[in-house]
Amino acid sequence: MENWRRIHVGRFVFRIQIACQQTFIAIGNAKTSVFLAVLRKVLVLIPLIFILPMFIENQAFAVFLAEPIADTIAVSVTATLFYQTYKRLGKETKA
Fold it and tell me: What is the pLDDT of residue 2?
């Protein structure tokens, strides 16, 4: 039962990323959306796949651990960029 909850929390967090990326596309900022997708899979995940096994004895586990770490970093960056963009757009519409 505990693993089931973890999976749903992970899905919820990842859905935030997808929703924010799609919002960037909708507001005409597709470059940011592409950057966030590349950040998650290329700039964070691939290096973690090579770095984590150096520090964790169970190398297979280290590689599997890279995905949720990359997702967490990517969601944090995405949420931060989304919040900053949302604030900026709010100020532009008031002016």
Answer: 58
